[in-house]
Amino acid sequence: MKKMKRFLVFLPLIALLMIYSCEGEKKINYPEAKKVDTVDVYFGTEVPDPYRWLEDDNSEETAEWVKAQNEITNAYLADIPFREAIEKRMTELWNYPKYQVPFKEGDHYFYFKNDGLQNQSVLYMQKSLDAEPEVLLDPNQFSEDGTIALASMGISHDGKLLAYGISRSGSDWNEICVMDVKSRRQLKDTIRWVKFSGIAWEGVGFYYSGYDAPEKGEEYSDKNEYHKIYYHKLGTPQSEDKVIFENREYPLRTFAASVTDDQKYLIVYESESTSGNALFIKNLKKKNAGFVQIAGGFDYEYRIIDDLEDELLMHTNYEAPKWKVVLVEPDKPGIENWKTIIPEKEEVLQGVAVAGGKLIAEYMKDATSKAYIYEFNGDYIAEMDLPGIGTMFSFNGKKDENLAFYGFTSFTFPSTIYKYDIKQNISEVYKESKIDFNTGDFETEQIFFESKDGTKVPMFLVHKKGIKKDGDNPVLLYGYGGFNVSLTPSFSVTRLTFLEQGGIYALVNLRGGGEYGEEWHEAGMKLNKQNVFDDFIGAAEYLVSDDYTKPEKIAIMGGSNGGLLVGTVMTQRPDLFGVAIPIVGVMDMLRYQHFTIGWAWASDYETSEESREMFEYLYGYSPLHNIKEGVEYPATMAVTADHDDRVVPAHTFKFMATLQEKGGGDEPYLVRIETKAGHGAGKPTSKIIEEYTDIFSFVMYNLEMEVEY
Predict the structure, then answer these.
(1) CA–CA separation, 567 and 347 (whole Å)
(2) CA atoms of 512 and 479, how far apart (whole Å)
């Protein structure tokens, strides 16, 4: 049995939430959750779903359950003796200026800045790099509590108009508004029911993507179907917006639009999942021109970089798992006519920018950034001299201008903005941030361990210099492992308090991600998904065997697909971890496809209806369905939000109701349910600080760390 921790929790009478154990400890008495007789049958196997009623996020019963759960969790957290000190220190650390990479449109430069504790970053503009910045748009004025956020934006090519999308309470639903840049005057144009959309200006309007208005009351849970691309002409009502592209035969597909920098080509991407797309183009300069299909099917990715006169530069993993760049003639779009400009290399080609008459190719080697400069014909020029081992991001430049900008960050290196002279291949700091944190006291190491099947898996370890391998260090193990997402070194204020108190932050580059290209991704998909969990378990076992730590000192954390990861490994190996923090996790692998955009994840997961084999595989690791009666699971605090319409909160609700019902031992099984928040994007600073204060207070308390501030 794990060592018992003493804690006092003062709660309202509503649920008689505490009872005494025989040792005199107080134990949480969770709110009673009714059970219903719902049973689904998959290929002859009956699967009970007793908490199906928690899927109804509009019901009074669900609201009462949420209220009671938050009362328990808030009372537990309030009794952690160092919680206020953690919040104070995290607020101090957060209070430093943060810049995003500038970009240029028309005659002005634009960039985002947060002074420190502002809930939302502010959009600035300036005539030149030496001119006084002016506030163009301050999202902090959208709402008093910061829960209305800027979700997307697009500035017209002449720099005179700004279209921007706003999100309320973290929802994926957006509204697009339009502003005159010079006068700051809001135009009457307002577009609603926008989702999974960019803003692409062309002529006297812009392209965007959206759905028909959902049924009232079903906005945050109903399945999203029949996505479309529209064109909105300024000064006209939304009802007159033209549908530019749709596919009525396939309701579960999404579409995105972009326009080349010279506004010659409209690019349309058609997807049916989170990876793979078909590609269409339309010549906007030719009257009555139709769409030309450049690539079909959904096995590969095709991304247009830009056009070079009458040809299109394209970044693709077609017959190149680590990506390449090809040149495509719109009038001869067949694959047999594609010309390779930058062939596939050992490193993963993450992206390509056109700037200063050159191609800037961003690569990833062992989850860290490299960058190389090429001529338009593919001739190699030089390697960029990056500031160190870390992550390059958001390279912004113009095709015919020598000056460009990019960002760089690492685990102990706050995001810094660099000004880059392309001809001279010289970078210099443009904007940097001073933070109240002694980065020189910490170090990062990258190790490689063997997973269950012998695969070498990389992991970054961040900790104080001179740490002792005495098997007693607290560890926060973080991973994702899915959807071709790569985890690379980055700076985050949220984990600094943990590092200051002697913790080790461990980030694992699991299969299912994109760190080594499409083959690495596929090795963690569908019937290979267990590899992801084995990699994560293998990371923990390595840290124990190499005397960094011991199981009861390991906390695990992950969000979304990473929440699925945490939920799965804590049910497969409850003995290996001391604390589990699944954040907005996908916990019901049999029903995820029935909510909002969940159907799009089938490319990585497949579905329970696909085949008996797939059902049995999903059923075998689905976190909700693998909680065993009487097993002592790690101290758990699941985190979700009431407006999460990406991974609906029902996943977390049902998982935690089951864990509270079945889990044995004396560890707390809590759920933190944020209000007026969604899947994470656009969350105001105040809520982020509150959330991570609670998370790290829970983690450090249950790892029995000695916190000194």
Answers:
(1) 32
(2) 11
Distances (CA, A) of 575 to 2, 502, 579: 10, 23, 11
b (16+ CB within 10 A) / e for 92-128: bbbebebbbbbbbbeebbbbbbbeeebbbbbbbbbee
Distances from the Cα of 125 to the Cα of 255, 564, 624, angstroms: 31, 41, 49
Under 8 Å CB-to-CB from 702, ≥6 apart: which residues? 5, 555, 578, 579, 635, 667, 668
pLDDT digits (tens, 9 = 90+) for 130-165: 999 999 999 999 988 888 889 999 999 999 999 999
Q: 13-92+437-702 has which CATH code? A: 3.40.50.1820
Q: What is the pLDDT of residue 506?
A: 98
| 198/258 Cα distance (integer angstroms) | 8
Calpha distance 50→39 (Å, rounded): 8
Tokens linked to 572: 């497969």
Residue 10 has pLDDT above 70, yes or no: no
- Establish how many alpha carbons lie within 13 A of residue 169's alpha carbon, considering only the half-sphere containing its beta carbon: 11
> CA–CA separation, 105 vs 457, rounded Å?
42
Contacts of 253 (CB under 8 A, 6+ apart): 227, 247, 270, 271, 272
- What is the average pLDDT across 57-84? 94
pLDDT of residue 16: 30
Give the Å distances, CA to CA, from 292 to 302, 319, 458, 647: 14, 22, 42, 35
Render the burial of 476-506: b for 16+ CB within 10 Å, e for the rest: bbbbbbbbbbbbbbebebbbbbbbbbbbbbb
d(CA 692, CA 564): 19
Phi, psi angle pair for 119, to nearest 5°: -65, -35
Annotated active-site positions, please?
Answer: 560, 679
Question: For 455, how many CA atoms within 13 A lie in the half-sphere containing its CB?
Answer: 22
- Which helix (H) or strand (E) segment is 688 a member of? helix 685-702
Partner residues linked to 218 by β-bridges: none
Beta strands in 366-423 (DSSP E): 368-374, 380-383, 391-397, 403-410, 413-421
Q: Which of 638, 614, 515 is nearest to 566 (CA)?
A: 638
Among 492, 587, 479, CA closest to 534: 479
Beta bridge partners of 315: 303, 325
Residue whose tokens read 């009232």: 216
